[in-house]
Design goal:
alpha+beta, SH3 type barrels, five-stranded antiparallel sheet, two-stranded antiparallel sheet
């Protein structure tokens, strides 16, 4: 199982492995009990763990860096129910976290997620972006497109206008003939009204 395939699903506790995605949702497998379920994108949002960042005093840091610092500390995780112990733990493990913008609930979630990752022996590293092979540049002389200088008078626009008028004139008789056809038909006589 790869770290890059892990997602957090809103409305569902824990972490999930993304098995397959569809237009209307995704099929995910829970890391806690290995149950597979369909999560609709109408109800749930999916956040890849690779894309989650944590506020710090400086630049934002990817969640992997926090997990790696937690792994290096190795002190054991704090009690996830006690806000003050969780905050003290992160002050030791990663003191640059901006505790004004990162809520205690987020810190607790990071502790729970870290425990799940360790339980499943998932390597904590970002996937390296796949570099697309760029074809070798072949020196091909492309002809330069230059505007053609015309000598003499430019084409007159008047014939174009005449053409448009002639098209309009062609349409007008068609309308007139349609009107004439209506006139040629005898009008229906309405029966006299009875009093």
């Amino acid at each position: 199982m790869e770290y890059s395939k892990l997602v957090a699903v809103t409305g569902l506790p824990g972490l999930y492995e993304l098995i397959n995605s569809k237009t209307d949702g995704a099929i995910v497998r829970s890391l806690e009990d290995n149950s597979t379920k369909f999560a609709s994108s109408r109800i749930h949002n999916f956040s890849h763990l690779e894309s989650i960042e944590v506020y710090t005093v400086g630049d934002n840091v990817n969640l992997v860096e926090i997990f790696q610092a937690m792994d290096k500390a190795g002190n054991g995780s704090p009690d996830a129910k006690d806000n003050s112990s969780v905050k003290k733990y992160f002050e030791k493990v990663y003191p640059d976290i901006d505790f004004e913008r990162v809520y205690p609930s987020d810190l607790k979630k990071m502790v729970k997620w870290f425990e799940v990752l360790k339980k499943n022996n998932i390597e904590l590293k970002l996937s390296e972006p796949v570099e697309e092979e760029q074809p070798e540049e072949v020196a091909v002389a492309e002809p330069e497109v230059k505007p053609i200088k015309k000598e003499g008078k430019p084409k007159e626009e008047k014939p174009k206008k005449k053409e448009t008028k002639s098209k309009a004139e062609e349409e007008k008789p068609a309308k007139k003939t349609a009107a004439k056809k209506k006139e040629e038909k005898p009008a229906k006589k309405t029966p006299p009204k009875k009093k």
